[in-house]
Amino acid sequence: MTTTDRTLDKDTPPFHLAGAFAPVREERTDVELDVVGEIPADLRGTYVRNGPNPRTGWSPAWFAAEGMLHGVRLEDGRARWYKNRWIAGAYANTSVVRHAGRILALVEAHRPVEVTADLETVGPHDFGGALGRAMTAHPKICPRTGELLFFSQAPSRPHLTYYRADAAGRVVHRAALDVPAMTFMHDFAITERYVLFYVLPVLLGDVRSPVPLLWDDGFPARFGVLPRDGGDEDMRWFDVAPCTISHTVNAFEEGGTIVLDAVRAPRIMTPHALHRFTFDLSTGRAAETELDPRFLDFPRVHPAVVGARHRRAYTTELCDFGPDGGFSRTVARQHDLDTGAAVVHDFGDGAMPGEAVVAARPGSAAEDDAWVILFVHRRDGSSTDLVILDPSRFASPPVARVRLPCRVPLGLHGEWLPDAAA
Ligand SMILES: [Fe+2]
Hints:
By secondary structure, the chain is mostly beta strands. It has one helix spanning 3-11, and strands at 28-31, 34-37, 45-52, 67-75, 78-86, 95-99, 102-106, 113-115, 121-124, 140-141, 148-153, 160-165, 171-177, 189-190, 194-199, 202-204, 213-215, 222-227, 236-239, 244-254, 257-265, 273-280, 286-292, 296-300, 312-318, 330-336, 342-345, 351-353, 357-360, 370-378, 384-389, 400-403, 414-418. It has a single domain, classed as TolB, C-terminal domain (Neuraminidase), CATH 2.120.10.
């Protein structure tokens, strides 16, 4: 290596500020976007995706930045607009949920920030004063009851609080749960009658460090199963092998057993794989098997099967995860969890698909009678498309590809907000 090479290395920005991750510097609105293929006429709504995007162009770590929403409006077979807007206030940079008519931008360290359908910030939302200082970025909407189920964590007791809001958005149940510490619990799960919490040996360290997580070998790994309307005295704990969970695929009840599919790693900062846990409510025992050994994340299922038995799941496979936490090649995977088969959609050299979300066809809850929507970014950061895939022929060319007028940085979680359910 020459001296010049070393200088270049020293000046190379961290992965989260370069290439497809590099933040954008302006808000913009563009109308009537170019489309290749045909957008299904009954796909009416807005796709919105959240992600960190530092206003200054610099941040110490990927997650430590203001959030920015990117929205694409689909209507009458056309892509009506693209907008991007910073989320004002807290760093609500992780995900988006719409419940009881409110669109909320979420990050687990703060309260939600409500935004309009045009992505403009309204302000913090605390469920009429019911919410504490923070809320998970992965609440669950029960497709059966319309309830929003979620939790918050705090450095002081109670470290974990569970909330259930009714379909109108009112918190109707709240339970303080007795756990020994504030752990890294990024996600949880629901079934028809239960909620599941992951209390694992990953404790929170210095929040100013790039990855403020500490692995604690002495901390027991346990999953808690709580009836939806239960309190701490109703919690049942299941011991599992030490691990960490990044995201939930889904969970459901099967006889006297609860089945949980989740993205699991044996420690922090190690590749995650797809696992199935089972919790036997009669024996109190847990078991687990690996469903897919590849390093994947960002799992999604059809919104109608959340908490119920699912067959399909979608993930993003990280093909070249590096020691700095960066990656530069991803493919989209469709899993058949009944057969164990997976179908890959590889968008080709230089293309990086992000999280895939499932958009239900209006009036249908069938897992394959739907569309899969995702951003596909160019690795060099030159452009981004919104891509629509048909789940019944996942590896086939896209149904439609919307050419965005500007690049979108690789980000975190998105959501399809259909008009019919507004
Ligand atoms: Fe997440």
